[in-house]
Each structure stands twice: as structure tokens, then as C-alpha cells.
Amino acid sequence: MKKIIFSLALFATCMVGNAQTQIKANFQKGDSAVYASTILMHAGKDVESKMKAETNYVVQDVQADGYIIKTTMTDLTTEGDVADDVIFQTLSMQKGVTLIIKTDLNGKPIKLINYVDVKNVCAAYCKNMVEEMAADNPEFFEQMSKENMIDAMINQLTEEKLLDDADQATGFFALYGKTLKTGDVESNVERGIKINTTYQVTPMMGKLTVIGKSECAMSNEEVKTMFMEQIDKAGLPADQAAMIKAQYDQIAAMGMAKIVLDGEDTYLFQKNSWLQESKMTYNMDMFGETITSNINASCKFLNR
């Protein structure tokens, strides 16, 4: 009898896993949580970096059409060589900055309310970073305009990008608003890279686990287009940009003009709809450079 009951329970779980599940926030005004994150990065064989961050989320208001959520990265510590790490630069730009985010009723971000203020802080960070680069490598800027590089960086600080970066260390907003079932495939673009993600959805005992396995979905021509667009956004002098673009066929002939991505994200939600923990692992080979990232975040404190 026990074996029959267990088999029926397992069958029911599998059936639920194949049904559509809406990932919907159920926040209350005054809810607050602190997430502790650990980020490990490997670039090539030798460069390794480690970052630890703490991020606060506070539900400032519950409105008829959604939530107002304030998020602030209150702490960021590093180990190893992080100077050229994109994730480090993104997190450093956010440290101490409060983002006031408007979401829909499902918890999906739709607006950065204090976008202008956040952009101004991030723009100042970009300017200081370029000034430090120029002081450390004056030869590089003999032919490269600091102003052009600063402008190029600031031009990328769109509201959409800052919203995307808001949960870089936690993945907090990644799934709210989605309706998923096991086997669903979602296509999106992240930092110019087209990605297909296949989901596994497992509701059990009121909690929810979602696993997304991702891979790059770009043709050779799309990779080339992305490469050219990134060069245009870099703020390089026209002659340098043209020279780099002209080398693309040579890069392709060496077998380096490709993007290979293997990623897996795991999210565990509590019964009250709050994200309990997330784990994001990516292995990428991009134009001959191998990058591995592991981000683990867990809810350290929840007050409701």
C-alpha cells in the first residue's frame, strides 16, 4: 500500500510539473529581505576573482497596478584580479545606490522610477573609471579620446539596462511575471547575445523550483553583426574601429569568431512567493576567451 501511495504521489508531482505555473509575487507593504551573494569568476586559465555582496529589498508600497520596491547593494568585497571584470564593474557602479523600481502585479519590473538620479551616479562612476585608466595607461589614450570613451559608456546607461542590472548579484527579478511549464523554451537577448533557455518547473509542497538551461543561439552572421555593433559602441577613433573591423575575417579564419554558451540557473521560491535562493552558472567561450562565472545568492533575512 505504501508503495502504491508513493507512486501516485510521484505521478501527481510529475503531472504538476508539466502544467503551466505562473510565477507571481505576493508581497506585502513593509516586507524586506537581505540577500547574501558570492560570485566566482574565471577568465582564461590564470585569472580568478571572488566577490561577495549583500543586497536589500524593501516593498515600499503595494498599489492597484503593482509594487514599488527599493533595492540597495549595501556591501561589496572582492578578492583577486577584478579590475577588468564586467560583473565587478556593474556591481561597483550599483554599490550604495538605491533603485526605486515599479513592477506590475506579478512582480515584473516595468520602470525605474529614479532613473535620472541613478544614471547620474553611474555616469560619474564611468567618468572616474576612465580617468583612472588614463592615469595608469597614458599611452593608450594618446590616440584614444577619454571623452569619447566616457560618452560611449554613458550612452549605454539606458533605463532598460539599469533595470536588467538591478539584480545582477541575486537574480531576484528574473522570473516574476513568467508563466512556465517543463519543456518551455524562451528566447531572449542578453548583452547583445541571443540565448535560448529551456525550463524545468517543479512545484512541490507549496514551494517552487525552476531550472533554466541556456545556450547561445546565434548564426555566424549574427555573431559578426554583434561584433561590429560592439566596436561601434566602444567609442574608439574611426580609424581604429575600421582597423579592428577589417580583422574580423582573419579572426573567423582562426576559428575564434564564435560564441559558445552553456548556462544553468536554478531558482527556489518560498510558499510566500519570495525568492529563497538562486544559483547561476555560466561557461562561455567568446572570441577565443573562456569565461566561467558562478553566482550563488540566498535569502539571509526576511521580514514580513
Secondary-structure map with pairings?
Layout: H1 2-17, E1 21-22, E2 32-43, E3 47-63, E4 66-80, H2 86-94, E5 98-103, E6 109-112, H3 115-136, H4 146-155, H5 159-165, E7 179-180, E8 185-190, E9 193-204, E10 207-216, H6 220-233, H7 238-246, H8 248-253, E11 259-269, E12 275-286, E13 289-303
Antiparallel strand pairs: 1-7, 2-3, 2-13, 3-4, 4-5, 5-6, 8-9, 9-10, 10-11, 11-12, 12-13
Overall description:
The chain has helices spanning 2-17, 86-94, 115-136, 146-155, 159-165, 220-233, 238-246, 248-253; strands spanning 21-22, 32-43, 47-63, 66-80, 98-103, 109-112, 179-180, 185-190, 193-204, 207-216, 259-269, 275-286, 289-303. The chain has 304 residues and is α+β, with helices and mostly antiparallel strands. The strands form two sheets. It has an eleven-stranded antiparallel beta sheet. A two-stranded antiparallel sheet has the order 1-7. The longest helix has 22 residues, at 115-136.
Give a brief rundown of this model.
The chain has 304 residues and is of the alpha+beta class. It contains eight helices and 13 strands.
- Separation of the first and last Cα atoms: 41 Å
Low-confidence stretches: 1-17
Number of helices: 8
Number of strands: 13
| Biggest sheet: strand arrangement | 6-5-4-3-2-13-12-11-10-9-8
What proportion strand? Answer: 35-45%
Radius of gyration using CA atoms only: 21 Å
Describe the sheet with the most strands.
11 strands, antiparallel
Structural class: alpha+beta
Order of helices and strands: HEEEEHEEHHHEEEEHHHEEE
Shape: globular
Average pLDDT: 88
